[in-house]
Amino acid sequence: MTKIDLNQSTKEEMSKHSRAISSVVDAVGDENKVSRAIGKLKQLQIAIPSWALGTGGTRFGRFPGGGEPSSLAQKIEDVALLNRLNKSSSSISLHIPWDKAENIEELKKLAKSLDLSFDAVNSNTFQDQPNQSYSYKYGSLCHTDKEVRQLAVNHNKEVISIGENLGSKALTVWLADGSIFPGQHDFKSALNRTLDSLSEIYSSLPPDWTMLLEYKPYEPNFYSMVIPDWGTSYLLVSELGDQAKTLVDLGHHLPNTNIEQIVSTLLFKNKLGGFHFNDSKYGDDDITVGSLKPYQLFLIFCELVKGMDDDPNLDLSWMIDASHNIKDPLEDLLQSVEAIKIAYAQALLVDYNELAFYQNRNDISQCQEILQEAFRTDVRALVREARLQLGGVYDPIKSFRENKIREKLISERGVNSKATGL
Amino acid sequence: MTKIDLNQSTKEEMSKHSRAISSVVDAVGDENKVSRAIGKLKQLQIAIPSWALGTGGTRFGRFPGGGEPSSLAQKIEDVALLNRLNKSSSSISLHIPWDKAENIEELKKLAKSLDLSFDAVNSNTFQDQPNQSYSYKYGSLCHTDKEVRQLAVNHNKEVISIGENLGSKALTVWLADGSIFPGQHDFKSALNRTLDSLSEIYSSLPPDWTMLLEYKPYEPNFYSMVIPDWGTSYLLVSELGDQAKTLVDLGHHLPNTNIEQIVSTLLFKNKLGGFHFNDSKYGDDDITVGSLKPYQLFLIFCELVKGMDDDPNLDLSWMIDASHNIKDPLEDLLQSVEAIKIAYAQALLVDYNELAFYQNRNDISQCQEILQEAFRTDVRALVREARLQLGGVYDPIKSFRENKIREKLISERGVNSKATGL
Amino acid sequence: MTKIDLNQSTKEEMSKHSRAISSVVDAVGDENKVSRAIGKLKQLQIAIPSWALGTGGTRFGRFPGGGEPSSLAQKIEDVALLNRLNKSSSSISLHIPWDKAENIEELKKLAKSLDLSFDAVNSNTFQDQPNQSYSYKYGSLCHTDKEVRQLAVNHNKEVISIGENLGSKALTVWLADGSIFPGQHDFKSALNRTLDSLSEIYSSLPPDWTMLLEYKPYEPNFYSMVIPDWGTSYLLVSELGDQAKTLVDLGHHLPNTNIEQIVSTLLFKNKLGGFHFNDSKYGDDDITVGSLKPYQLFLIFCELVKGMDDDPNLDLSWMIDASHNIKDPLEDLLQSVEAIKIAYAQALLVDYNELAFYQNRNDISQCQEILQEAFRTDVRALVREARLQLGGVYDPIKSFRENKIREKLISERGVNSKATGL
Amino acid sequence: MTKIDLNQSTKEEMSKHSRAISSVVDAVGDENKVSRAIGKLKQLQIAIPSWALGTGGTRFGRFPGGGEPSSLAQKIEDVALLNRLNKSSSSISLHIPWDKAENIEELKKLAKSLDLSFDAVNSNTFQDQPNQSYSYKYGSLCHTDKEVRQLAVNHNKEVISIGENLGSKALTVWLADGSIFPGQHDFKSALNRTLDSLSEIYSSLPPDWTMLLEYKPYEPNFYSMVIPDWGTSYLLVSELGDQAKTLVDLGHHLPNTNIEQIVSTLLFKNKLGGFHFNDSKYGDDDITVGSLKPYQLFLIFCELVKGMDDDPNLDLSWMIDASHNIKDPLEDLLQSVEAIKIAYAQALLVDYNELAFYQNRNDISQCQEILQEAFRTDVRALVREARLQLGGVYDPIKSFRENKIREKLISERGVNSKATGL
């Protein structure tokens, strides 16, 4: 594994940092609130998906970088690297069969030695694997052919069983099933078959597991998706049972969707299971979290903070799901985690009781002021403080570069190593 | 009431018409299917909303035409006029308080004499009426203030009671409630209060009535609507009970939404209550049905035909909801009804068993061919035949113009008469 | 005019303020850059449109507040009030005929006494005025009828002449012309007629004036607008001549449009004339600037700062164009101006040479860091400092409320006063 | 080459066909118009892009069919096959370097023997080729590095020279260049560099050639594209000169764009160069032409028919650009050509003088009636008649299946043959 020697923060850095903390206290006017926020920030861990450690691409091409992890062990090492820098990425989310390991025990040992755990496991029924007995060309859990559906169901069961071995507690199901042309699907039958298949998978779920069901309006199908929106996912997880929840991927919405309201509605019905964080302008662009719509991210976190305040037992799955087409994947992930923590920090500064007071009076200008004041506060020092307290570095990207980590990875793994996956 | 003397179809028209019927039989290759379609077309009645009989407008202005109905009696007469021409508009849908009548018995008599009935009644809590005790500025059923909610609940109860007198069997609730700015609403509380208010209204529903609950993503609120999408409406009507159903207004969707799939999903859960037909390119443009996306309309009707085939007791509410900003409202309504019947006729020509056969084989090209063949068939003669069999005219728009109906209405009612409403 | 007695900032406020300034210097690491930013902020003046001083509405209704200005003199007084608070709103933009004044000399005197000037004048050919000889129902500058076009051309000429009297230097043309249905317009002819009409107006433009030409994709027309996008506006202003420029209204774009790129392209061709600032989620929602997409606003200002750096003679028109449907219009305008200045301040903190350096190396992560660092900096103190130096108040909204300005306006003008306009 | 033996139409088919023609004449009421339409239909040839002959895919995967052409010669044979069936696909459009041939003379001979010609040639600077000296990862014609730009310019020059050898008369440039993150590009510099690069390519254009410049709002870049919209393409082709024109790809627009209006504006300025036909619901979905929005296609053809009527010398490039992810590519192409010809036939039935008459009177209902009457007419017989007159088959898809063409191709080429390209 790449050896890195992380420098201590300089004296100058640290004194600048404490002045920055003071100025947040000054702006917020409540030292306790700031300390509490730092405490909460320390607890937030965001899982890294194994497939985001390599270079992504589009149907038009892919421009690989170098030093990509070409084995699951290397992927785990990359996540450990990230976590060593930011102390907020202490778990990895696997995608089967891309991450199918021959020696699970060794991997578990490796992960343990690096203080990493295994987050939700992901099944894959949107690609055919070599020598697969049936093709998913026309769907998987929704397929008209019983044997294809059974293949997909069995695959999901296998994923659960792999996850059990690893210590995972959740199965994430993203279903690419859908149709490209009007007439291709009988919507009702396709939905019904999907519900049946999911039920069979659900029945294999260990009692302490959660099934996280995604939704997506389009891509890779361009006329209909079997689970196009939160409403359909909600309908399905409601029928499946208490262990089934909806997972929100920020990029899986039609233009202009109010995502924070969906988050709230799912919390209202206790059916929010977790997140795939990313950002996007047009479709499922899968770009760095917070790189385009930081205020939307903040508003989503306001709902989450309220939800966690309302229900201390709320157990949500947090993961990044991005495609790093042209930036260094590790730098990109560091930026994403930072953006998530910044949004969370801002949301923690809101006084929700005060907000509710003005909401009840319909004092809309004041409600806006309260949110904007939190958002306009420079909370980077709080995120840094939480990171430093956990043993992370002052500036993860800067450390990554000063330690020439990418260069080291390339020299170890070569320029042509290729992460499996998309 | 305007006297019109509708000419008989000419011999030439009628012989052209029968050739056109023959050519549909030729194209479809099944005379029975064509007869059955004509039979179904004769049964489809589409309600006319009272507010669509006058000139609509935008926030930028309104350009009234002339001869608009300025009383409820005149509105009923306008609908009778339409129905005399097309024989498919035999009911009117009222909007309270715009259509609050002093003498209900007289109106019922008038309607009966014209063979018209009263369709769903609509409540209005998106505008303040003169001398209203509380304002709906910040919402109605969702309002933070109990007294405003009660006002809105009572209004809905009154609307039900008016509807009972008239013989209506459904209450349509379109809720403009929402927020324009982040922070204005606590989504969860607003949704919860709305559910409570709706429950109280629902409890007043006569046992043979349906409550139709609309959804809309934006306008007049521009950040959130309390019931933004079918999922939220579905969640609410599920909690309310069997008499509550979702109503789909074609213009109430985000860009690129697959509406026909929503229709299918609601049918799957037996929660589709009815339609507000219109067409649109950008938002809730409320333009003439079928004037922009006739293929989408056809696809929606394919779902409806399948749904009605599956459940002969399915009882759906059909209504036009459009805003006639620059065209003659009556001509516009005639065009809308014609477009609906054309789409229905095309959908009736599809052989759904054959379609299912190819769907099950994933023969996508063939599925597409089946739908497109039905859509590309010129079914205007079938719609005309159904209309003629019911005693309507050969060409409603032509008759409207030849009889100088608008001119007569203007001379009777003046150029400055104004229909109440939007 | 409403008498207000603005308190001095407290000692505590002022010492908090200077700590906040220091912390910006600390974050930015360059005192000169901060001073320069404050200097630039002092120069930015944003015009207030007369029509934004009252309550706006939608086609579904309007919920008036109280104390609205019911005369042009009162509108000028309202702008003076805003300017007294924020010192950044020293001009008013009039809309003719809504703001047609009988006694122009008196108005000029009033404005002068309040240190206000008259910004761009706006023509209105999207509504019919009482007793207008021809109707704009089917268009104005594009109308098929020569006499309607001439009426609209003459109106624009009259607006120029009114503007000349007032000391304006620009005519803003927003053309609602378009079509609601396919077939209604022959696009080519409509565009050609519009070009002819604009040419005639352009020929009346005083040599030191600018014609600002807006574009908008839809509303109030729902199939086509004659000038739907920047490309069409650019095509027209290119043909008209050097005095014609494109005006960008932030709400006048299709979903997901990259507005900052349009700004850059127009600057590239020296055809950017100015802005109508507002924010929106769905369409032309006309909500408070910065209330939804503050990062987009910042990115637009980055282009503007670069543009102004490149061309010190660049003369842009800055105006708010919003519709205050439920908030107090004056509070809303104060929030909008603040948001504009915050975005400008953030954009002023970017080191564009450094950015160019990394752009040239395709170091994308670093480019992102540079922008996000500026955006994440809490610049509220810089905006406040600029305001205080100009004699404005510490916190405009707070002063507005503490001085009970709305209450005073209501007591002076009544609850039912109505601002003309939308 | 696959041997197929195309059956003659049966007597029953032919008599059904002539009845169908008669019924169109009946509906249209003008035999000459129908004959003229058939004449025009015979002339319309639509180029087939070489890359559409194999199975397409998305970033999530690809599900190949079998019998794909694995050489350029086989691609030419596939197009010949299509053309033998529909007689409307007499040319092929090549993509370099995918279609770089070793022996051009042989290919020309092959094409000639099959009565095919070579349409526009396409350059490719959105993918890196093995052993390429510089990477297009960060752009090509817009790249910050002069040497990358030169590589891309030279590639385009080479494509022109290959095209000259083949007898092409146009170069199509689709530029994937853009940025994924705010800050990555300096928009102005990127656009300026692109203009310079295009100028150098343009200077190599033979005098009888056209340069067709596409635009696209996003994908594969997700923040900005250097040529995002028709306005930018128009700006560039205007600066380049008369031989440069804009090419419209139907899928390259933001949601809700009025494409037919863009077509009209480009025709107005004589800057429309051609089309890439496809259909889409969400983004650049590249699905079968006419499979989703047939009315939009018809409206576009109305503009084209008017444009060709206005300028008989108008020379437009017509090509399909689709991605056949799950349907048989050849069937899909047959469906696309059919849909184009149907839309063209409908547009040819419109009486544009009559339309203009009602447009000038602002009789909007009547304008709508005129367009809808043409669209609702069943014109399949006209398209078939044109095809039969040229020697094509009665029903291309049926012939394709009855002749078991795909089965033959698979047996000749195998199930694993792979077309180069996307």
Describe the protein in words.
Four copies of one chain form a homotetramer. By secondary structure, the first copy, chain A, is α/β, with parallel strands linked by helices. Chain A is built from 15 helices and 13 strands. Chain A has one domain: Alpha-Beta Barrel (TIM Barrel), CATH 3.20.20. In chain A, helix 2 crosses helix 13 and helix 10 crosses helix 12. At the A-B interface, helix 6, helix 7, helix 8, helix 9 and helix 11 of A face helix 6, helix 7, helix 8, helix 9 and helix 11 of B.
Oligomer: homotetramer
Number of helices of chain A: 15
Structural class of chain A: alpha/beta
Order of helices and strands of chain A: HHEEEHEHEEHEEHEEHEHEHEHHHHHH
- Termini Cα gap of chain A: 24 Å
Overall strand count of chain A:
13
CATH topology (level 3) name of chain A:
TIM Barrel
Task: Give the name of the CATH architecture of chain A.
Answer: Alpha-Beta Barrel
Low-confidence stretches of chain A: none
**Strand order across the biggest sheet of chain A?**
6-7-9-11-12-13
The interface involving the most residues is between: A-B, 54 and 54 residues
Domain count of chain A: 1
CATH class of chain A: Alpha Beta
What portion of residues of chain A belong to β-strands? 5-15%
Helix fraction of chain A, binned, reads 40-55%
- Taking all residues together, what is the mean pLDDT of chain A? 96
Any idea what the CATH superfamily of chain A is called? Divalent-metal-dependent TIM barrel enzymes
Shape verdict of chain A? globular
Q: Evaluate the radius of gyration of chain A.
A: 22 Å
